[in-house]
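Lab notebook, bench 4. Continuing the backlog of folding jobs that were queued last week. Each job is logged with the same field layout so the records can be merged later without manual cleanup. Today's entry covers GFA family protein, a 121-residue chain. Filled in by technician R.K.

JOB TYPE: sequence-to-structure
TARGET: GFA family protein
LENGTH: 121
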Amino acid sequence: MLTGSCLCGAVAYRAEGPVRHASHCYCTMCRKQHGAAAGSYANVAAAGFTIERGAERVTEYASSSHGRRGFCSVCGSNLYWRSTEAPDRIAVTLGTLEPEFSGPVEREWHTGQKPNWLPVR
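JOB STATUS: finished
OUTPUT FIELD FOLLOWS
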């Protein structure tokens, strides 16, 4: 089971595993939403995702015809990404997990948009 919350603590959630995969996405939308080099996610079953506190504080933004991004309306923390084309899955943001995610990040998406300012591995 994964648990997480936003920066201000208004929203808390849980996501029952298993994690299908964890990923970093370098698409422009993820980079802009996160204000970082990538959006980092754990892909889990939507049926096991529950907002335990602060559901009224979660706002969704339709970033594309099929993508919905959930965030806290108080502090702005990015909580999840979900696709209307794959309603059985949801991708929770790794940075909001408590304790921190201990699994491997197995996938990278949109690597052609990876920022040049990232250090080379």
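OBSERVATION: The chain is about 5% helix and 40% strand.
SIGNED: R.K.
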